[in-house]
Amino acid sequence: MLHSRQAPNSYLRRTFFGSLLVFSLLSGQSAHALDNIGFVSASGTSLIFNGKTFTPKGMNLMDHDTLWYADRTTPTFTYLKEKDFKSLKASGFNSVRLSVKTDYFQNVKPPYSFNEAGFQWVDQIISLAKRNNIKLILDMHMPTGGVQQDYQINSVNQQFWNDPWLKGRFVDVWREIAKRYANEPTIWAYDLMNEPATTDFVAYEGLMKNTVSSIRAYDPNHLIMLQRGMFIKADGSWSMKYPEVDDFQIIRSIHFYQPTDFTLQSAPWFTTKKVSVTYPTPSAKETKDMWNATRIRNELTSLTQEAQSSTIPVVLTEFGTLFPKRLTGQLQWVTDVASIAQNLGLGWHYWHYSGPSCTNAFALKSKYGTCRPLTLKTLSGFAIVN
Question: Quick check: helix, strand or coil at residue 114?
């Protein structure tokens, strides 16, 4: 179905999942409660899989050849191969957060038909994951138009928020994903939108509600993951909060890169300063800006408490650091974050597993081999210990 201004009520009457959902609502039950064997589900603040607690420990994966480029809409297998999934499983990881974009799945030119190559690519990734007993999060890392959001407001990514047609196509793609993968338990969650770059919180929350409604017309099975949005407060300052969506299986995502002066140092898109920032901050600088394991514990605890309620689980879906040419404590930072997340009972996904380069990069592996064997070994140790 392509985007139209009419609500897809007819689909509720014509599909099994729509009928199931309507029946369950009329009977006062959630469709999810009727039958969710084999799928990860939420119970209070816990994730449950086949009657046991499920704690995701994994990696973010993406196709670097196409994800970051608005004019490239057919993904490749350069960075996602069978050997990678085998290696991840052998290292104890049980989940992959797969970064995708809506332009993989719907052609960017008229008549805006769905792009079968994108779905076939996901099908093959699902097969790789299934053969290696790894579960997937589908992370919509870029919305329609293929432009990064990343909480960085600019004239290019605001085109999405200013155009109802683009937002409608975003919903269309998620609806189509739900139609195709409703019965696929290898996928354990849909991460609807990565780091939305708008201070119009009402627009963001409305988009999330519309998207969830469209998904649930076909798919009562999968967990839906929501991220925080920005909003303008009465005094003109801005803050972050989660959209409120009335659904039976919502989970919330947190990202952690603090302090960014350390984790993003040497990134040309973050700063032009050539300053070497160390971790932990030397004790001689005992100020409010000092960072160590105690500070990270306080910050992660605060983020978790903000996101969590009696009925909503929380997952740390991104944490990571660039590795500059001269290391200044990066392995210790990764160790501290993973250890504290473990103590808080947070599932996590490191950003990211493989990439095109080893220097000034997040990647633990590249085409040249393993870049960060000690970091990978450290994360593997935390993954194995449940």
Answer: strand
